[in-house]
Each structure stands twice: as C-alpha cells, then as structure tokens.
Amino acid sequence: MNRTNRAFTLIELLVVIAIIAILAAILFPVFAQAREDARKTSCVSNLKQLATGVLMYTQDYDETFPSVTGNGYPPQPGIPFGTDTWVYNDIVVIIQPYVKNFDVFFCPDRQRLVPASGDFCNPGTGTQHVWGYGYNWSSGYGPHDNPHSLWFQGDGCVLPDTPSNTLPGRSLAAVNFPAQFIFLGDTGDTPRQTLYTAVFDPRCNPSSGWNADLPTGARHQGGNDFAFADGHVKWFKVNLTYVDPYNVGVTTPAVVPNRYWFSATWDGVSHSP
C-alpha cells in the first residue's frame, strides 16, 4: 500500500504561530509579575532583617537608636566594594554585628552602582555604590543650612546636629507611636543612606543615587517598603501629594499616606511634621 506523507500547510503553520504568539502575550506579563513579586518579597525580607538588627542594637545600647556621625568608616576585609568608603557609613557598619550580611542592604530593584557623571545633582565623575535602604534621620527637608532640614529637625531616629557633626541617637522610649513610626525604608539617597523625603529636583537624573526623592521612581509595583519601630514591614503606594509641613512656603512630596509617620514625636493629633 502506498502511504502519502502529508506536510503542514502554510495556513496551519500560521495558525500555530498565532496561537503561540497569543499564549506568549498572555503569559509573559504573568511571568514578569511573578518575578517582581519575588523581588518585592526579597526586599521585605531584607528590611525585616535590618529592622531586627537595629532593634537588637537599641537593646544593647540603652534602648537608643544608632547615631549618625558624618564620618566614613574604613573598608573592612571581605566587603566587595573596593575603597569606596561612602558605602561603609553609619548604620551600615554599626549594625553589621547583628545582621552579618552586607547583601541585605541592597534592594533587588535598585542597581548597586549608579553613574555619578552628567547629573545636575552630582556633577562628579565615576560611579557610586549605593544601598537600597535608608535610615530615618528626621522628617526635615531642604539644604543643610535650612533650619527645617533633616540635620536640624531632630524628630526622627536621631537628634539635631551638634557642633561635632554628630546626630545623637534618639531614645526608643521617646517614640510616641512605635507602630506608626517609620525608621527604615526604600531610599533613593546616597551616599548617606537617609530616607531624605524631600529632595526633589526634576533636573536630577533619577537613575543616579543623588536624586534622593523616591517619588521619582517607585521601586515596587508603584510603591515602596518601610519598616516601623515595632518591627513590622509594610508596603505603601507612592503618594505624590505635595505638602508644606512646616508652613514655610516650600512643598515636598508626602511620600507615604501619612508623612507625619516620619516623626517620632508625632502627638497623634497634629499632622504638621
């Protein structure tokens, strides 16, 4: 018996290709969403570890948050960041005995190296190592010589700047509402790793670590992760509402639904900070 081998026709091949294309269009966004969910979960895990480390530190140091010294720490053996001492600053080194891992300081949705050239906010050259998470110095905003800047407001984890350029740590007991006080979170700031909620300049390059305000680019599905002083971590959708918290004619993005959560001294009534 003669058997005739029948090949696919052009129409059949086109139908198969069309079906594959439709399935790909449906599944690829699902895969991308799954990957982003995994990165978001990793970020929450990192912040949880950092928050636990800071709270363990406070228990060992008279229930006082880490201070900010303004001094860079020298490179330490085993840290894969060369001689870029900016990455060894303040709480990154202070709480290292409690986390024993430098990778947890990096957010999976933020690149570790950012360009430092060609940016209005940082006209330098080369690259900077940047962390993914910041420490809540205060709810202040504006340049260093502004009395409302984070250096002088003194209502976050640290007290106002001193003549020795040290911002002493605040007592944990001085936090009025630990479950509503943000003390760590996603940040765009570098090299000081603050939450720096009010440096917004559209002339800055959002990809550089020096464009410090997070609303220039929400990191996780339209929002960012924050850790609170009672140890829990929560995601917030970015709030682009501009406010003037100190009634000085200067506005700043609210960042989270209640910007006064950046103030350890919030009285539960006033929304001014």
Describe the protein's architecture and organization.
The chain is of the alpha+beta class. It has one domain (10-262). It has helices at residues 10-60, 91-94, 96-99; strands at 113-115, 127-129, 133-135, 182-186, 223-228, 233-237, 239-243, 252-255. The protein has a 4-stranded antiparallel sheet with strand order 3-4-5-6, covered by helices on one side. Strand 5 (223-228) and strand 6 (233-237) form a beta hairpin. The protein is elongated, with a radius of gyration of 23 Å.
Can you count the beta strands?
A: 8
Element-by-element helix/strand order: HHHEEEEEEEE
Give the helix tally: 3
Based on the structure, what is the oligomeric state of the protein chains?
single chain
Provide the low-confidence segments as ranges.
198-203, 206-216
Proportion of helical residues: 10-25%
Please give the alpha-carbon distance between the first and last residues.
91 Å
Mean pLDDT: 76
Most strands sheet: 4 strands, antiparallel
Rounded to an integer in angstroms, the radius of gyration calculated over CA atoms is: 23 Å
Number of domains: 1
Mass-distribution shape: elongated
Largest sheet: spatial strand order: 3-4-5-6
What class do helices, strands and sheet pairing give? alpha+beta
Share of β-strand residues: 5-15%
